[in-house]
Amino acid sequence: MQYLLLIYGDESAYAQNPELGQKEMAEYGDYTVALKKSGQFKAGDALQPTATATTVRVRNGERLVTDGPFAETKEQLGGYYVVDCENLDQALDWAAKIPGAKSGSIEVRPLMELPAEYTAMVAQAARA
To answer: Residue 11: helix, strand or coil by DSSP?
Structure first.
């Protein structure tokens, strides 16, 4: 089963303490190497700061675009990993090892397994 590990933290902390940011980036490098060596890494990336975000909504058929994140929060989504684990406990173990878990939070969500018919239909439509 695949899980999405969403990394939330206070992005302003790195601007206030660049040395902390450099130290944590090195820890993320070590973590990512260990995760890849385990064979459970599927994908992952860091995100640009929330100031670069754009939020899109459609209301009454009209597209509404707002600069910035959807909501003001103390912790911002900073990155993610997709892991392939045997069960939730294994995904939680990997989540607890993410460096950002020490100062922020990690949301662990199972990815939805779509029916084979749906996947085949989308693949066929993409070829058309």
So the answer is: coil
Q: Are 51 and 12 in contact (CB under 8 A)?
A: no
At 100 the three-state DSSP class reads helix
pTM: 0.86
pLDDT tens-digit map of 30-76 = 999 999 999 999 999 999 988 899 889 999 999 999 887 666 677 88
Place of tokens 């973590």: 31
Cβ contacts of 43 within 8 Å, gap of 6 or more:
80, 81, 82
Residue 70, phi then psi, degrees to nearest 5: -65, -40
CATH number of 2-49+77-127: 3.30.70.1060
DSSP E strand boundaries for 10-100: 41-46, 54-59, 62-67, 76-84
DSSP states of 101-120 as a string? GGTSEEEEEEPP---HHHHH
Token output for 65:
């675009």
pLDDT digit string (tens) for 75-118?
889 999 999 999 999 999 999 999 999 999 999 999 998 888 88
